[in-house]
Structures
1.
Amino acid sequence: MTTPLAEVLDGQHAAELRKAARALLKQPLLLSHGKHAQEFRLVRRHASELREWFDRNTGWPLHVDAETARLRKIPGVLHDSTHPACDATRAAAPFTRRRYVLLCLALAALERGEAQIALGRLADQVVLDATDPGLVASGIQFTLDRRDERLDLAAVVRLLLGLGVLRRVAGDEDAYVNGAGDVLYDVERRALAGLLATRRGPSTVQAEATADRLAQLVAETALDSDDLRFRAMRQTLTRRLLDDPVLYYDELSDAELSYLTRQRGFLTARVAELTGLVPEIRAEGIAMVDPEDDLTDVRMPEQGTHGHITLLLAEYLAGAGRPVTTDQLARRVRELAAVHGTFWAKAAREPGTEAELVEQAVARLAALGLVSRTADGAEPRPALARYAVGEPLVLEAGKVRLPAQRKARQA
Amino acid sequence: MTVSATAPTPGPDGFSPFAHLTVQNTALYRQVMRAFVMAKEHFAVHLRPEDVYAALPGEVRPAELDGVVKALDKLVGWGNLRADPDTGRVSAVEDFYRKRFIYQLTRAGEAAEEALAAYDEALGRRGALQAIALHDIVTQLRALLVLTADEQPDPGKTYLAFDALASRFAALADNARAFMGSLQRTIDLHEVEEAVFLAYKDRLIQYLERFIQDLITLGGRIAQLILELEESGRIEVLLRAAAGREAADAAPEEAESAAQEAYAHWAGRWDGLAAWFLTRNGRESQARLLRGRALGAIPQMLAVVRVLGERRAGRSDRSADFRTLARWFAEAADDASRHRLWRAAFGLHPARHLTIDADTLAARVTAPVPASTPWAAAAPLRISPQLRRTGSYERRGKPRKVEDRQERRRHLAEVAAKQVAEIAAARARLVTDGAVRLSELGEFDPVSFGLFLQLLGDALATWRPGMRHTVATSNDGSMEIRLSALAEGTTAQIRTPSGTFHGPDHLIEIVDLTDGDVLTHGEGER
């Protein structure tokens, strides 16, 4: 019955759906205006299909209205700490304690506030809210009259600008940081309303330990039948396949593992069909790898000094096949600098920067599930073997005279 | 209207009938008084305490009848009620021994209730637009129109019609004013209770729809009737008749001025009415303003609805949620747990995946890796040697770039020079030595032929029916062509490498205007 035209249309539909799904996975909060407007339109067009898919396979609710699309993702595992909130600047430094607290206080103030707010006013309210006895007891306080505190607030505001919760109307944050001016914002209420992804409001959770708190935040309804248990397992596994770089079998419970063993083909095919990811199934686990190389926030391999060092250290770790200490890694960086240093940013060749370079590389590898951190270094995990590359090229590099002038690009 | 000037105890407590508003149990007292007012509307004058008790709404009704009796006695004390001994039969012994009274409103009490009712109405009035009033106005205007038909309009009927018209119109105008005010109040109230607002919104929209419709249809008809009355020129007669009737009661010595005054009064009202429905002297009619206002109310109301919707989109305790999270972030043991909390609470993290390049992927398709292979045993990812050595995919710093450009520039220059030379040659080839026949031009190379065609085109574009001779200058002003038709009707042929050009033969002369010599050496001017 299928005519060529119908096939073409089907293909187009599938491609659009895939694009929309990938956009949502990459950016769980999409706005109808701004740089993601096109993706938003795609998501909106296929909202019902996507909603059904995510609901059935991951249990993630998808909310789409005229202005926002929000996939309220719950992580497959709660112990992964490699997804910090980051500065909107190029350095993308992870948020500190003070910045996280400031962020939440700012959101609380915005939630109560009007459609517009000035940064100075926001700061006043944050300072007021920070006098909450619970916060004072934890030893944190804000006055926001020191420059570094204002820098923290500016970083928080830039994160919100990036998310589309705030829209700048006038002024700029630098002036505020320098104490020379104020900034006016429009508050995008719908984006603000969609920020929290938890199943329960944090204010209704009574637990005291952080782990319990996390568990309760995302707790689903009680599971009292086999069907529901299986569904929960399928959803957890699919969440991990969709969101995480590598799913190692040794991290799963027996029940999960036996379910996965039986349903592996089905689960990976469903994910592959929606997203275009390709399953790389090995004895130790599954990685959904991306041929398009853009469904990720951490790339490997990547160009630039840090990407290069990470790649070379990955080879080294893969070759070592056992835990390696930070010192050994630093030594290795020094050796590498002798061979490849000419391609690196000048700062990376300075003596004494090895520790920092190693830290960055290990953080990146850990984020990708390729190594796990140990007390004094890093231990390779099975998938790291993907990057085990032979040596001969290095010898060749020694012979070739390379042009002396080129500035390696910053990561 | 009765006024408290005749209250039983004038003096400092002249307003004691209002005392129940400022004491405890005001709600009870007011409901008791309300029971009397209601009774009076049903023409019942006296009420027994039991009747009052039964009439009280549940929320203010005291547990015992005694409570009501006390309240009644208090009200008697303030002068709102009057108590008379009850002489009716009783059916219980204790009732017989009790001092029994029946109660009725005093004039002062009644006046106070009226005042309070007016007060409540004025404050509580949401402003209703009276579509009915419009109908009434149409009816009265029609009646007036009928009256104009009479030579001597009946003063009584005229007066009544005008009076009814005036009172309906006054009510309409009042209501419109209240309506505009209350509309603004509703819209400005950003703090309104959501349920209240939503209920009000539905009613208001329905109401506005109906009213706008009436205002458009009836407003037009009213304007029409007013115009008819005015154009008939009889309106003044009617107004005078009404004024005469009103002034009839005046004392004889004031009769003349009273009639004048009454007439001025009625004429002013009439103008007011007309201004309401007709746009005059550049001032927009009130009806039109009102219509615009009513229409404008709908989008404004939608804005309020949106604000409410937004508020609902955020749950009411969201702010508390964020404050709780702030505390948790502050209490978390280390950065790692804070990052975990961030991820779980906000779920804004992008998906993260390892990559695979096309070559590796293709290799795997041709030679699939069994699922039981450990990672270490499978072929590793193909990393570009360039990337592995230098940390970047593309070469940087190509010193030959500059040379490339020079070469290209030289090439361009050569091409340009060649073209210039070709065109010069073509021009030279085209220039005729005096007038020749087309058929004598002989063979052209492609460049010359192209140029020739352009010139011929320019010349033929100026060709009009009946012309025998034409002169044209090429677009760039560099050449001139003169063309004369021949009478004999022979055909000319011009051969080119890509074919032969046929056409009626002409006498042609081509001059190169850029070459100063040509003018002197050809046969110059036309």
2.
Amino acid sequence: MTTRIPIVENILSANDRIADRNRVLLDEKGVYSINIMASPGAGKTSFILKTLEALKGRLKLGVIEGDLATSIDAEKAMAAGLPAVQINTGGGCHLDAVMLADALPALPLSDLDLVLVENVGNLVCPANFQIGTHLNVLIASIPEGDDKPYKYPGMYRGVQVLIINKTDLMPYVTFNMSYFIKGVEALNPDVTIFPVSCKSGEGMDAWADWLTEKVRAGNQG
Amino acid sequence: MHELSVTQSVLDIALANAGARKIKQVNLVIGQFSSIVDDSVQFYWDMITKGTPAQGSLLHFERIAGEMTCRRCGHVFHPTDETFDCPSCSSPLVKISKGEEFQVDSIDVE
């Protein structure tokens, strides 16, 4: 005889519980953290390096770099004088909470104000997997096209901040900003948007000031 | 491909709820906005359930279509890939009302 047992449990609940533990650890250490997601080539590493530059002297930073393989990005962060940890997912398409739990103790958390986590370059699933950071950030870039919110709703849905990068390319690329923003706001009406150019530096100050406020408020709270 | 870790999570939830009983079927509810490939999950399922009380069991996927509700006129509709505008009043002010489900709904045990 077959019996049906009702469960109704989110498939990712185990991951989410570990993510909660990561956030508790970060809160105990007074460290704010952000999870930076984007497709490959949207400019995650450039954006992180520009952010580090803009926050120099204001906040003490650490970096966690997620990639399928290689430690190129962590080396760039270390060259900029920062504590950095490389996570290689070995083919995995996203970071999950366990990976962050393993990486966090490798950073001198007691000495830091902010940890920037660079997720794997992928526009399908990383936003589904909470890792325990305080803020989820998505970088969209102008050359990717204005239809991406319609094609990858889960990513646009799962973030609190949207960076629109490579705005310097607007004159050269067909990109309907109002169509793009309309898709974003339908999915995520509360998202905070920063248009930036990592190349010219335009918009980076507004982002860095906003983030500094967030970190200071978070660390006091 | 994240289906292996997702499949492992499904198995963990099923085993935790089955006790020592043999699992015949696991019933999943997956919304359109959740990224998962059924065939891939089934492929991993057959591999990782070997030697467990879920060996030989079936996965049943109940798919929930994406649904949006217009915040201006209240019209409920299925969005297209090209636009999320309300087809009734053309407002872009809409919200997702269904399609984000990602659950183990129940298991059938012997």
3.
Amino acid sequence: MNGVEEAITQAHHQQWARVVAILTRRFGDLDVAEEAAAEAFATAVERWPADGVPTNLAAWLITTANRKAIDRLRREHKRDEKHQEAQMLSADVPPEPLGAIDDDRLRLIFTCCHPALALESRVALTLRLVGGLTVPEIARAFLVQEAAMGRRITRAKAKIKAARIPYRVPAAQELPGRVSAVLAVLFLIFNEGYLASSPHTDPVRHELTAEAIRLARLLRVLLPQDGEVAGLLALMLLTEARRTARVSATGELVTLEEQDRGGWDPALIADGHQLVRERLAAAAAGVAPGRYQILAAINAVHTDARDVRDTDWSQIVALYDQLVRIDDSPIITLNRAIAVAELDGPDVALAAVERLENKLTGYHPYHATRADLLRRLGRSQESRVAYDRAIALTANTAESAYLIRRRNQLR
Amino acid sequence: MQYLISVIDDKGNPGSTDRQPAISAFNERLMADGHWVFAGGLADTDAATVIDNRGERAVFSDGPFVESKEYLAGVWVWEAPDLDVALRLATEASKICDRKVEVRPFL
């Protein structure tokens, strides 16, 4: 990749959500904002190689997108005078007073996560408009068809426009009721960054993990007493702390077991542990922890161990038991089984994993986990078949490199 | 922006009946705050007639256009700046008239 291409890719990662958010504020229309942002990036692809990369990328992109939006509204003016007048009118209205926090992206997230939208639509729309993910990437994250996901996003945008869902961070008294959908969305954005689902991106998309953490920190300022906000932030920090140790120099995924723990980020781990301790104190005082707090605690146990052999697996399994009681999803059960393998052996874990086959047959970690357990039990033939399934289902380049090597090591 | 608020009753599980004084007080508040455009209760669906004059001649049929346990018992039309305001009022309205309500924007 040459310098200009790299600058454009970087700018897309860092500025997409901001450009969409600012244009949404100005024009009050998600479609106009999204299309103008896309046109601005297309113009950058055309112009930057010849003109050079502008010094202030954000300003260039926002100005260009603004012009594109106005051009588009003028074109529509010729088709539909009334509609266009309304649009231009709203463009001239000064921005409404800011909510509790002056952050355009957070406003965009709360708009996308409005309770009048179905939960799946909230998540999909946020990933699209804030995370800048493509429809195929979102469809993969949800294990659904692209066409269905496209329709869901279109319908959600149409409802925001027709029912006039406002573009703002809700008032303080509305916040607690709206935050759980926002947390779900931030976690999905983070996960897409941590294990990208597309073969056409870096296997780890730091810009997405960084953005999810930045937004979670902002939420924590808004809701300092919310245990799940603290829990999710801790979970992200403790996961992010291991990011650089997770992909080898040759671009292969390195599992938690094989990671060089000296490469973990001690500052992020200290921050994450501090938050987990805070939540443990609250739990001791009788506040029942939610799923993010439990997941954060599991990651705190992992990051406490200086060597994988020192990991307190019984503590991890106990935490998973607690988690299963509030969320008995097959993915949680699968992750619990991975810990059970360390505590009770791969045969016990395999029995638990295989009970999930119907529910997780399209989910590559299911096949990768099963492959690993079969390998440890010496059932090489079956393990090879399971590795093949996992390899076929993952699009992450680092992960397939890892799985292929493990498969080829089988005797 | 105007919103239609449909009051939904259920023949199998009707709401309590005498909500009129509370609804009147709520309507006065809607008027004072500039949200009230129109409101009205509807007679039972037994009193409905459906007319279809798309063919050669008009056909009249007795009863509502859709047969279900749930039916439209009344409507409000409100003026509100955005959906959040309409939803806040509708949340109150549902409590006050002891029925489900649907909020739908006019085009």
4.
Amino acid sequence: MTELTAQPGQDEPAPMPDLLYSEAEEDLRAAVRALLADRADAPGVIARVESGTPYDPRLWKALAADIGAAGLLVPEKLGGQGATYREAAVVLEELGRSVAPVPYLTSSVVATETLLALAARDGAVVELLGELAAGRRTAALAVPFSAPAADEAQPASAVTGRLEGTITGVADAATADVLLVPTTDGLYAVETAADGVTVEPLVALDLTRPLATVVLHGAAGVLIADASSAVPAVRRGLLVGAGLLASEQLGIAEWCLTETVRYTRERRQFNRPVGSFQALKHRMAQLWLEIVSARAAARHAAGRLAADGPEALLAVAVAQAYCSGVAVHAAEECVQLHGGIGMTWEHPAHLYLKRAKADSIAYGTAGRHREVIAELVDLPAP
Amino acid sequence: MTAPVDAGEVRRLTRELLASHPPATTDRTGFLKARFDAGLAWVHYPAGLGGLDAPRTLQQIVDTELADAGAPDNDPRRIGIGLGMAAPTILRYGTDEQKRRFLRPLWVGEEVWCQLFSEPGAGSDLAALGTRAVRDAGGEWVVDGQKVWTSSAHVARWAILIARTDPDLPKHRGISYFICDMADPGVEVRPLRQITGEAEFNEVFLTGVRIPDSRRLGPVGDGWKVAQTTLMNERVSIGGARIPREGGMIGTAARTWRGRPELRTHDLHQRLLTLWVEAEVARLSGERLRQQLMAGQPGPEGSAMKLAFARLNQQISGLEVELLGDEGLLYSDWTMSRPELVDFTGRDAGYRYLRSKGNSIEGGTTEVLLNIVAERVLGLPSEPRNDKDIAWKDLSR
Ligand SMILES: Cc1cc2nc3c(=O)[nH]c(=O)nc-3n(C[C@H](O)[C@H](O)[C@H](O)COP(=O)(O)OP(=O)(O)OC[C@H]3O[C@@H](n4cnc5c(N)ncnc54)[C@H](O)[C@@H]3O)c2cc1C
């Protein structure tokens, strides 16, 4: 047998991050949870998604500006909170738990992180970052929601001074004020209201995170980064998106298990609570085990993102390869163990199933992330 | 009042021990005894019993300093049952005299312990056990019965034993807990050959075994409660040590994959990667559990770890046998032997595959642990029971 080429078998070079929650994080969680309970309860979310405009500007203002969630990743000197990925991850856990339709992941995480990676000190980028951090505007990175960071960030549109092209399946594009468009020239900031920009809403599987096709036809934009800095910045934005998405998936899974336990304790058949049947208890206990593991993986990814290196890449890939399956499993069990009521439109279980399934494709599938792992830890395919 | 022991004091005591007993020139047992007497065996234990009444979290300092200095350890794997189960139970329920008599040789490894709990008729339903302990006129207990699956009974000096002292009470209430002398002439240990070909566990026949009342742990009839301490510690004893990436069985499988490109197939690749991710995530959960313990917030995650590792070990070793193909068809040696400890990584894949089947049975089956998670962690209702208020002797067997 040959010796290892990677470092597996030894402990990581950097110290293991804190995988627990700090008191400040628990406070933030409590604030976000209270807000969501108030403004985004299940019947409210269902009513909103049916109205065709799931996005609730008042909820967004309260979350983004009043609680200050939008600026968590942005340094204080740029108008943000200067917090870490761990706090943002806690916000996402709560958003997963409520499947609230807010552009947090797309604007406050992915678009914001892409802009931050440009390391601009002044000008349009800094100005936009300040606006995003304050929750006054939102931005969306104009790539398909399914695009993994590991892919070469493919320029979705060509440029001839004006932008031309079509990008399908862009999450939260319809509500964004600004699109960040990667091109062969570099990264452009394009106002969605500008001439030559059409955002065509799609009918999405996940009702709570709208997708749209962005059509650019001679649209004007501001070049905010040349190609050489745009590519790594987009990749970083997508990497952080994938890493923190794991926390949203954790929140989804937790809600599904909690609700299923609650329901099966009360629901009676055969003269006893259905939750007393072992066949069901074991399935719920199994989900609990998966959630315990998903939490460790998601916290680890959030902790590792602070450093930009192979450890972060691996931690994110591991979290995505694991957590997306857990969220889908929990949501599928939630529907099944609720019986007929789980199949209804009225019960919120479907919102979670749709979100979980869509999330399992977002920012790269589990299989795609396993390919990344194979490369990082030297377990090559045949 | 003396100041509470802090990290600085623990470090100072550790260095003092190393100075007075240089590992290079001190014999193994001598060093371990000195370490126990210095209170550095398990720092959270009481002073005089191998500890310093210090926070458990400070043990790391001792372990790291001693490992760096090349000091011998007490081979926790060999004394696992004593360390993980007998010791915490004796500490909690033992008399001062019992603590002084048993803890030091247990920790040093001079005396190995085994656990006489399971019986042919009482496994998962442990409280159904039928081994009888009857008090004679002189106040001594006379024990008769049969135990089974007793790991290490062939090398053990002492055993923790539960026996029925009142068959007229419902099953959980008529049990008492004893320390049994394995050298007693009434104790007969017969090897029980297992799936791997070797005999790691045993049948133990108890015939007129005399146990003085001074070797009872806890009140008469309260043995089930005492046993809960043992069983809880059995399930939690995992999680203390830091595991490096690829530290467990996945490491062996990954090394085979890297070293033997000719064995690779696409199907095996997919499965290996999935298990690699699960092993890494289990390791991270273990790390999170460790951080919780250090922060003084022990959670129910310990049982999650046992369940996860049992499944992972089985799946990884199964994959490994398949990966090896022609070699996987072979087995190292079926000769009956009597190992002192289980060594997963030093053996071949076939052994690992077979032995890991026990991981989901020993220490509580996966099914029983899932019941515990469902009821105690998730709060799901228990199944209807028909054995709670009936005298043990009237239960159907
Ligand atoms: C390698 C090894 C070492 C061991 N070492 C020791 C030792 O040192 N000392 C000792 O005392 N014991 C020891 N044991 C015994 C072990 O604790 C028992 O085997 C175990 O508790 C299961 O009991 P059983 O074998 O009687 O199986 P049973 O209880 O008969 O179980 C049979 C099957 O039924 C399932 N089952 C039982 N009850 C339920 C339920 N309520 N719900 C759902 N499923 C259920 C079980 O999960 C299992 O699949 C060892 C076992 C092994 C395999």
